[in-house]
Design brief:
alpha/beta; Rossmann fold; 5 helices; 5 strands
Length: about 140
């Protein structure tokens, strides 16, 4: 999959993790990476930034304020447009099955457990994009 036309929003309250993920994405040719330090900041960006819309969103599970699952729910309820679903990948340092199920129920398309490899990240991005483009229901292709 070519990443050169992708715009990706990275949402994590840890600046180092945002930079690490952003560096990986730019390194594989993603055209535009924007960062948000909180779920609120991400929602504001999705609602108000001159119509800018990412092709995919990477969201940390545990954040102060709204967490990644709550952000995912909000995007599904308030941001997604008819016929245009924003692919969302939840990233976490926790691997419990209940967390995966919670993310899936909220509408996450994929789930990545830290630490992860560049290969895993790119694979999940490709799968999330394919899932949304093919109109599959949230979580049909979800895996840990």
């Amino acid at each position: 999959m070519a990443f050169s036309d992708l715009k990706i929003l990275v949402v994590d309250d840890n600046a180092n993790m945002r930079r690490l993920i952003g560096t990986i994405l730019i390194g594989v040719g993603v055209s535009e990476v924007r960062e948000s330090a909180s779920a609120k900041e991400a929602l504001d960006a999705l609602r108000h930034e001159d119509g800018w819309r990412p092709d995919l969103m990477l969201v940390d599970y545990v954040m102060d304020g709204l967490d990644g699952v709550q952000l995912t729910r909000r995007v599904r309820q308030d941001i997604d447009e008819a016929g245009r679903r924003l692919p969302i990948i939840v990233i976490t340092g926790y691997s419990e099955l209940w967390r995966l199920n919670e993310a899936k129920a909220a509408g996450a398309d994929e789930f990545i457990v830290k630490p992860f490899t560049t290969s895993t990240l790119l694979d999940r991005i490709s799968r999330a994009l394919a899932t949304c483009r093919n109109g599959l229901a949230a979580g049909e292709m979800l895996s840990a």
